[in-house]
Design brief:
Largest sheet: 2 strands, antiparallel
Strand order of the largest sheet: 1-2
Number of domains: 1
Low-confidence stretches: 67-80
Number of helices: 22
Distance between the termini: 37 Å
Structural class: mainly alpha
Radius of gyration: 22 Å
Order of helices and strands: HHEHEHHHHHHHHHHHHHHHHHHH
Length: about 500
């Protein structure tokens, strides 16, 4: 069994074990889920250790047993074999590691806060982990779509069952329907690709050619699906609602991984498969991205819910990523990948901080927590650190990513780069406003009269985020080296 198949199977083995554990053994259930996720994380690190940085080819290649549908099932029509192909390159490597890194955090953050349906909760996250790893490693277009949409099911359950407020069902349905509706067009595009080429194998499709007219149609169909996942304006409404109603762990995985599925889809499929359409629609992407950056940054300034503030800032950051992706040069794409990884650390860390406040006081309104720097100094330090990382302070991971994105974008369109830089200034404005209100405001004891700083469990839960953010900001070479060959190959293929 290869590393890929091991990483895919271990969470499912954990699910199988949990099915035989009685519901009332809550501590045992949590320990099994946590140990399973930690084991998966440790195995995923072997991918990085054994990864060959000198090649752009897919590594750790794995082919599962395929099946061929016979005539009795197809009424005389024969289908080519559906192959379960898995592999990892420099683009997908760190997304798999990020997934396995966040899942133990999700289980740990809900150690005391989730008291109902604990077994089902742990099963949902382990299944979600396996599905997300499959999304980032599968090399078949149809299977990518299957796993891409399957991720919605456990996430829908997590928001709808363990959400925090009365509107959680509405938010869960909104999240599910928004993302599913966009993907219908993607399915039609996959069918069209299959009927033209006779295969959905990604490596074969990279060598296929589509006419310019067909490229335009196919690219836009994929865009309809990926734009909702990013999300891009105007299909971003579901994200703040989902974040506000989701449990803390749900927000962590939603911000850390699920928002990356759309940009990963652009990078893996839209750009290499449809190069003509990519060049044709680049002005559209630039326009929507800068509108989203400026609009969401201004919208954030008037929010009073802490989760909505971070949710809108996530929209701005992910649209920075799309700017870099469609710059179609090495600096822009590598910067986008680094920014995605950085956002996958910074935004979940901020949601964890907000979850710490919510678990204590059952509210997320900003005005209730004014002056918490005096009563919760360790929490205030961590929150300010993550907020500064969120606005790309030099020395943090986001700075390198946004600098490379702006460099790559400037090479293509200096005006767009200037507008995006203006969005960065607005981002700094709402971040400083937030820190001023939260940390240095006037304490209002008639709202909250008992304060308690972070516990030992919460401190050690946030420490890996601090270390990773500083590491990526000070020494990003290990990350950039691993993705460089794959990015260069992607650009040369697209050209």
């Amino acid at each position: 069994m290869s590393l890929i198949s091991t990483i895919l199977v271990v969470p499912l083995l954990g699910v199988l074990i949990l099915l035989f554990v009685p519901n009332w053994k809550i501590q045992l259930i949590r320990r099994i889920a946590l140990n399973t996720s930690l084991l998966t994380f440790l195995i995923s690190l072997l991918l990085w250790i054994e990864f060959d940085r000198s090649t752009a080819r897919f590594q750790f290649f794995e082919t599962f047993t395929h099946s061929t549908f016979g005539d009795e099932f197809t009424s005389g029509y024969s289908f080519s074999s559906l192959n379960f192909l898995f592999g990892v390159d420099g683009i997908s490597l760190f997304f798999i590691i990020l997934t396995t890194f966040l899942i133990p955090i999700c289980i740990l953050v809900s150690w005391t806060s989730v008291q109902s349906y604990v077994k089902e909760y742990c099963i949902a996250f382990l299944v979600l982990e396996s599905l997300m790893i499959a999304v980032f490693s599968v090399l078949d277009l149809l299977l990518f779509y299957v796993f891409f949409e399957s991720v919605l099911i456990p996430m829908f359950v997590i928001i709808g069952v363990w959400g925090s407020r009365e509107r959680k069902i509405r938010a869960a349905y909104q999240f599910f329907l928004y993302t599913l509706l966009g993907s219908v067009f993607m399915l039609l595009a996959i069918l069209l690709i299959y009927f033209q080429t006779g295969t959905t194998d990604l490596e074969i499709l990279y060598c296929s050619h589509f006419s310019e007219t067909r490229q335009l149609f196919l690219w836009f169909a994929f865009f309809a699906s990926f734009a909702v996942k990013v999300p891009m304006v105007p299909v971003h409404i579901w994200l703040p609602e989902a974040h506000v109603e989701a449990p803390t762990a749900g927000s962590v995985i939603l911000a850390g991984i699920l928002l990356k599925l759309g940009t990963y889809g652009f990078l893996r499929f839209s750009i290499p498969l449809f190069p003509f359409a990519t060049f044709y629609f680049t002005p559209l992407i630039y326009t929507l991205s800068v509108l989203a950056i400026v609009y969401t940054s201004l919208t954030t300034l008037r929010q009073v819910d802490l989760k909505k503030i971070i949710a809108y800032s996530s929209v701005a950051h992910m649209n920075f990523v799309t700017l870099g992706l469609f710059s179609l040069n090495t600096q822009g794409i590598e910067g986008s990948l680094l920014l995605m990884l950085s956002h996958g650390l910074v935004s979940p860390a901020l949601f964890l901080c907000i979850g710490i406040l919510y678990d204590r006081h059952k509210t997320r309104l900003l005005r209730y927590y004014a002056g918490c720097g005096r009563t919760m100094p360790i929490f205030a330090f961590l929150f300010v650190f993550f907020t500064m990382a969120n606005i790309s302070l030099p020395g943090t991971s986001s700075f390198i990513g946004e600098f490379l994105v702006l460099t790559g974008t400037y090479q293509n369109n200096s005006f767009i780069a200037m507008v995006a830089a203006t969005g960065m200034v607005l981002g700094a404005a709402y971040a400083l406003w937030l820190c001023n209100r939260l940390v240095y405001g006037v304490i209002k004891p008639h709202f909250i009269n008992e304060w308690s700083d972070v516990t030992r469990r919460e401190f050690w839960m946030l420490t890996p985020f601090v270390v990773s953010i500083i590491w990526m900001g000070v020494y990003p070479e290990p990350f950039l080296d691993a993705m460089h060959c794959s990015v260069s190959n992607l650009i040369s293929h697209g050209m």
